[in-house]
Amino acid sequence: MKNRKFIAVIGSGQATKEEAELAEAVGQEIAKRGAVLICGGLGGVMEAACKGAVEAGGMTIGIIPGDSRLAANPYVLFPIVTGMSQARNVIIIKSAHAVIAVGGAYGTLSEIGHALQNHIPVIGLQTWQIMKNENIDPSIIITKNPAKAVDIAFNLI
What we know:
two-stranded antiparallel sheet; 157 residues; alpha/beta; 36% helix; Rossmann fold; 7-stranded parallel sheet
């Protein structure tokens, strides 16, 4: 298990249909390549990614913000209960070799910030872009294709 790649999939707990489809495809690709998917363990993008991974025979870990493993979506195989609310975002990021962001709100942006601060590659599908001095910061690698997002993640690990 120590040698397996861990890829975090982050995004909103309220995903659009398109975001859910992208996340599910990302989960499938992660599983096909033998990596472990780690996420916040709840609904939306997290649930869709876990669904894709589990249906492709993969492993999923959910870092749950509350006090009950029952809060995990049905596709989380290993729920980790933290009782830490959004502070659990740091655990998700620090446990990953790469991060794939699908859509997302401010919680996702905070996870992206933690990843970039810790030199963990971030690949984005319909997610945030960061501007600095009126220029787009290239730290988040943007793609439109779920398989390509996973390819990029593996190449950067």
